[in-house]
Amino acid sequence: MQSTPRTWVPAAIGDLVLILVFAGVGRDAHARGDIITGAFATAWPFLAGAAAAWLLLRVWRQPLALWPSGVGVWLVTVAVGMALRAITGQTVVVPFVIVALLSLGVFLLGFRAVAALIRRGRRQRQRRA
Question: How far apart are CA 52 and CA 91, in angstroms?
Fold first, then answer.
């Protein structure tokens, strides 16, 4: 199925917003002040990773597919995000890597799974009509 901007734009925005939520929740959980600008400071390496994933994997073709798009965005986002954090002197410790993998996995795969369930429900209703 050919993707349109009606599909890939909301998916890209979803990735962006959920990465910002991940960063904001993390900043808030660790009582680090300035949640808004701090979230952007924490999020930018992961946002760059997501952008790289979208470009490298051409996610716009099937932006809501769990495989390979969702899994690719998730893993590339974390890998590039951690690499950029390390290069720029930000903290990269095993517990944070695990939390990022789990949290971003739930977020980036979760909204795609919900979208798949909604699409499946719509198709079933259309068949019955």
Answer: 21
